[in-house]
Amino acid sequence: MSVYNGERYLAQAIESVLAQTFADFEFLILDDGSRDGSRAILERYAKSDARIRLTLRENRGLIVSLNELVAMAQAPIIARMDADDICRSDRFAVQYAFLDAHPEYGVVGSWSADIDGEGRPLAPIGEDHPCTHDEMLAAIARGGQLICHPSAMMRRAVVLEAGGYHAAFRHCEDLDLWLRLASLTHLGNIPERLLQYRRYPEQVSSRHATEQQIGSAVARLAYAERAAGRSDPTADLERLPPLDAFDALFGREGVTRALRGKIALHLVYSREAMGGDGFALLLKHIEDGGETQGLWRTVIRLARFGLPGRALRLARALLAR
Fold it and tell me: What is the CA angle 260-314-320, rounded to 5?
């Protein structure tokens, strides 16, 4: 568990791990330079349970922290957890038993139940995650969801073999890792809701929607390059370049335009993206002659988002086509 300013939900997350029926584990927690009350909470729990190995240091970011934690782990099986979610008490037992019975699987997640900032149940968003490796490959082909990151339990050796988390894929480091692991091992999910996944406006996926969608689209493109037997030009990047640079990065024309189209049509559902730099990306997609089907509904959506000026600009761009 990497923690950064997580005091609001941290105690619940920690207690849900310490209460696991499978109790033989070390609990690695790294505080990534929190400026709130997280450190005091972590130090209190570390004093009360010897299974907790606590690291306190300055802020270096989530991906650096995750790779440090993987390197520190002493067990052959590692489990991810976020500081704002809640494990079911038998989560570790169920997932460990699955990996023990299925040596061909290197990663297993689970279905999750969405909750809000107050812990109240939320209606599910989209379909449940695929369960078998074959279903996972089909989901990759159609651009579907794969594994909920804080629900994942993994064999440490395959994560290290894949090179761990890649620095370039901020806010979608998990998707990039799953796509790289899919060629090394089997991936799956247990069709039980072993995790309560919290959704609230302040969470990272809400605040960085545009960057997350760009990274996700590039990770899927890199997967396709590898599957086609071509080299992956993102493999050694510390940061993804501007979107306009992807034709040069991948060595062929049309990559940027295709990426922009995929990204733009996903961002139209996000108020944060449409209120930020995702809107300019959408306008550029239209200017480039990209797909516009359904975008008049986005005009209405922008008005409902409280963005009437952007609704008008989008309408003008569509009429100009």
Answer: 95
